[in-house]
Amino acid sequence: GNLLKDKNILIMGVANKWSIAWGIAQKFHKEGANLAFTYYGDKSKESLLKLLEEEGIDNHLLISCDVTKDEDIENAFLNLKEKFGVLHGVVHSIAHAKKEELQGNYYNTSREGYHMAQDISAYSLVAVARNAKPLMTEGGSIVTLTYLGSERAVKNYNVMGVAKAALEASVRYLAVDLGPENITVNSISAGPIKTLAAKGVKGFNQMLKEFENVSPMKRTVKTEEIANTALFLCSDLGTGITGENIHVDCGYHILG
Ligand code: 0WD
Predict the structure, then answer these.
(1) ipTM computed for the complex
(2) Residue 60 pLDDT > 90, yes or no?
């Protein structure tokens, strides 16, 4: 396909082959996008280099970026400006909380853990949007990943659910800020997928089983289905949609 031909897109958050961001990267590559990646830590860099080689994605830009550091984010977009000049899309697929706070009672969340979850999982999108804006001179699309735990009290999701609520609210405010520049900002609310981040949530495997049993489609969602929605949003098919949260979860969220 060529739905993303001549589009320069930044993918943030590939940690390994199970990462949702990697599924999105593969799809975007097949649709002709010019890709850049930010990674966090040496382990992610190694995985990413290997994956890129296997997939035959070359001429990419790889940038180290810890989203808790303003200077890392600024540096990433400086690099992008040099390499691409114009940017058409950003996929933000980053979240983190302390493992011990993804279980038990939410009231046990520490101040530090609360701040960390907000910083990495929600504020990072705000900083990314601010830095992306000057490069999105031809309009653009910013897409982030969220989860139903923002709307409902999902067992064990706790502090991350609160961070995702902030992320989704940020999507709406950013959509207003950036709308005049023809930049859309949306989130995809993905059903549970077995990844590194998911393993941090206590009882995740059980959650997958329950999901299979009760979701309207009686199955879990595939990473490729998340990637297809990200593709739609970043291509010319998705223009006119902004501030939206699209559930890609086999219908699970409609259940009472
Ligand atoms: O079921 C799932 N897997 C769902 C995931 C359902 C619904 C939503 N999501 C969301 C996650 O909350 C996240 O926002 O999708 C996004 C991607 O998550 P993923 O693909 O499930 O998980 P993973 O492959 O672990 O990617 C998240 C990555 C980090 O991985 P680790 O596991 O090392 O925390 O976010 C990155 C890192 O690569 N990350 C950071 N990047 C920059 N700076 C930082 C940081 N400080 N911290 C974590």
Answers:
(1) 0.98
(2) no
